[in-house]
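Justification of resources, computational component.

The compute hours requested in this renewal are based largely on the per-chain cost of generating structure records like the one below. Each record pairs the submitted sequence with a full structure-token output. That output is archived, and it is also reused by downstream analysis tasks.
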Amino acid sequence: MSPWENNWFPSRGRGSRIHRGDGTRRHSINTMRACSPRTWWRRRCGGRDVLRLALPLVVSTASWTMMNFIDRMFLCWYSTEAMAATLPAGMLHFTILCFPLGVAAYVNTFVAQYQGANRPGRIGAAVWQGVWVGVMAIPVFLATIPFAPAIFRLAGHSPDVAGLEATYYQTVAFGAGGAVIAGALSSFFTGRGETRVVMLVSCTTAMVNVVLDYAWIFGRFGFPAMGIAGAGIATAVAEWCGAAIYWRLMERPAYREVYQLRAGRRFDRALFARLLRYGGPNGLQMLVEVSGFTLFLLLVGRLGSGAMAATTLAFNVNSVAFVPMLGMGVAVATIVGQQLGRNRPNMAARATWTALWMAMAYMGAFAVLYVVVPDVFLMGHAAWVAPEQFVVLRDQTVVLLRFVAAYCLFDALNLMFVSAIKGAGDTRFVLLANLILTPTPVLAAWVGVAFFDWGLIWCWVVLTGWVVALGLVFMTRFLQGRWRTMRVIEPDLAIDNGDRPDARAGDWSIFRREDVFGEKAPAENMDLSPSSPSAVEGPEEGGWPASDD
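The structure output for this chain reads:
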């Protein structure tokens, strides 16, 4: 036998393994093809799987973006002061909303892990505990309405703008309970992978909101012209409309029986406590982060209505890039949860890296457009505003969009990695990181404005550093790998599939080429038993299926 034949000779048969003369086995020809871009797309938890789950959620969150974009565009046509008032008032509304919403929305992780562990009977109970959170929060939301005028006066805004802010908050607050309940009910569909349902419901509610906005702001179709109050009422009605649609869809007999949706309506003390244990830090993290951002906006509001309008417009434009990636983040949390329910953390890591490259490509493209052609994104706002009035606002907004372009890619890091570790249950670290990182930029912005008169540009420099820090911190946490051993469901319910532990806490070897670049793991890290799909056949010849199920 020649030296070449002694070291390398293939067994007969299609897709067979390549053996060394010393009896060890190496990659098959088919397995080597796993490095190709085509296989990166087709492999399990690769591009196709991630996009199939994420695209409806991206469309869903994009519908929110368009809803808010059109809402503020209508208000810009009505009054630039009204448009400027919606951002701080909306952020205060979301600040009050985010804790119960964060808890209720975290039902998605419970549903995903129960689905991955093949425990459908627990899903209904988990969803209804989230609904109970929304029901309990409604009196709290309504109790804040009388205090809105005083809050905005204390913020130091001009009386006219403060009055508009209070009006918007007081009307939109009636829909807060519907938003929390809809967040819990939608988790029934997202956590199981039925993301098209969420897309259709979100698009429907967005259309309802846009039509009612036009009718109530300008007084069309027999509705009274109510201006900014009409915009708030339209949003509240749309939020309750979404909750009603989800509830009606879940009444289908096939869902009721398999997922115990009626039996699970009762209050489950143990499961509710478990939801608070993991979802509570998630809600508090949202509260801390959004509170910091709201304080930042209130600080910008002290610089004048022009600075506030430019900041509002810049965020409104950036929502076209940012908000759809929230849908990608929900998809990442769902896949991570499902794969950890199956005890397959490697698949969860692969899906996260796949989603990251997609998010960076998407947001990177917008970053370029914000610098090169910013006026494309401002045309709709300028359409019904006097040119001499809009030109100053346009010039300020173009400068702010350059800051947005600078932090876009770090926003992608933040969204994808924080979604992944939340999908595992690492919510306490996320809360701790935000408790440390949020006060610092807010304090720095306040010091610069109050003592050094640094103005709007300084505020945006601080904001950019804030986003960069969040992205780097959560990327580091993901790479440490502690999330791989975390679960939110009861430990005895997770599937024991016999997999070896594939990562240790603090082991940076999980920063693997196959997860990041789509390459196959080296032979020593592969299961090459005769029953292993990776040892026998490549993806095109019967290897890993394209979907998780």
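Residues 1-35, 498-513, 516-549 have pLDDT under 50 and may be disordered. The radius of gyration is 25 Å.
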